[in-house]
Amino acid sequence: MQISNNNIACLFDLDGVLVDTAVYHYQAWKALANSLGFDFTKEQNEQLKGVNRMRSLELILEWGGVQKTAAEMEELATVKNNNYVGMISKMTAAEVLPGSVDLLEALRAAGIKIALGSASKNSGLILERTNLAHLFDAIVDGNHVTTSKPDPEVFVKGAELLDTDPSRCIVFEDAQAGVQAAIAGKMKVVGIGEPENLPGADVVVKDLSAITVEEIKALIN
Known about the structure:
Distance between the termini: 24 Å
Strand content: 5-15%
Low-confidence stretches: 1-5
């Protein structure tokens, strides 16, 4: 495949960048932990940002001092996911984070390609419920990758689908694992959140309303 060096592409994480589903993950994991006889805190939930479902479950069971077989873990992950899907099925466009739609539309108007790069296996449902799906040129999520962040696979596949060299891609991430994945993929990174939580990001903003298309272009050119 011939990759154009003139393209610029933007790759967005989903949870915590475009929408805030952390509260639903927390509620679903907490319910599962409680059913196993221990608690799960918001601080622990923060440590699961950017981490896939099975690794998250492994960490939670470690924190609770609980051991399960592989088959039992699969069952527990399914219980958690079913609970979570029930919650996100009720999401609306009102839950899209500030600046997200405006920036995505501005990028499209500027001719910049856009992909999703998320660990979530439920990204399709979330994008549909929040009316964001039509703004993406490509979707890469937990259904399309075999390794989770900080491995760069999800972003490398996004760059390939957008026919763009990784060096001309900008990743938008709120998790340290995602920042590390972008750096490993030789991409620029816009961190969403607090600078102390996102070392390595090229720039950090509070949300997508705080950065412009011109500032994004300047990261590459």
